[in-house]
Design brief:
The protein is built from 2 helices and 10 strands; from the N terminus they run H-E-E-E-E-E-E-H-E-E-E-E. The protein is elongated and about 70 Å long. Strand 5 and strand 6 (84-92) form a beta hairpin. The longest helix has 18 residues, at 4-21. With 132 residues, it is α+β, with helices and mostly antiparallel strands. It has a 5-stranded mixed sheet with strand order 4-1-7-8-9, with no helix packed on it. Strands 3-2-5-6-10 form a 5-stranded antiparallel sheet.
């Protein structure tokens, strides 16, 4: 027979893991290129492929996903405009579990500039946009 304290601890652990499994993150990626330029964007994870989308200047793509049990959730995007091709990680649990608790906001602007919003600090920061 299990002690009441041990049962309670197991219940709390189950509750913690059950809530983190179903935690949703909402992602927004906005095209902030100048001169009305559109960009092609293709975002995916190991399990989900959002396909190729053309984003007009000022438009955004958005989607939601649930975090996986193991804490290894990873989403990335490839973007292209003109003759420029870039790759960036949209969500990595290791990097973003605090920064993007429920929402990940990204802006892509000229010259390969990528800015991400930090929910924890309430500030925008610069992130690497890697040439492909």
């Amino acid at each position: 027979m299990m002690s009441p304290l041990k049962s309670f601890v197991i219940f709390l652990l189950w509750l913690y893991f059950a809530s983190s499994i179903h935690a949703k993150v909402h992602v927004h990626v906005t095209n902030m290129l100048q001169d009305g330029r559109s960009m092609n964007i293709h975002c995916q994870s190991k399990d989900d492929d959002l396909g190729n989308i053309i984003l007009k200047n000022g438009d955004e793509i958005e989607w939601s996903f649930s975090l996986n049990f193991w804490g290894t959730t990873l989403f990335y995007c490839d973007v292209q405009w003109g003759n420029l091709n870039y790759h960036f990680i949209v969500y990595s649990n290791k990097r973003d579990h605090k920064r993007c608790r429920s929402e990940c906001r990204w802006m892509i602007s000229d010259y390969g500039s990528l800015y991400g919003y930090d929910q924890e600090s309430g500030k925008w920061g610069s992130f690497p946009l890697k040439p492909m």
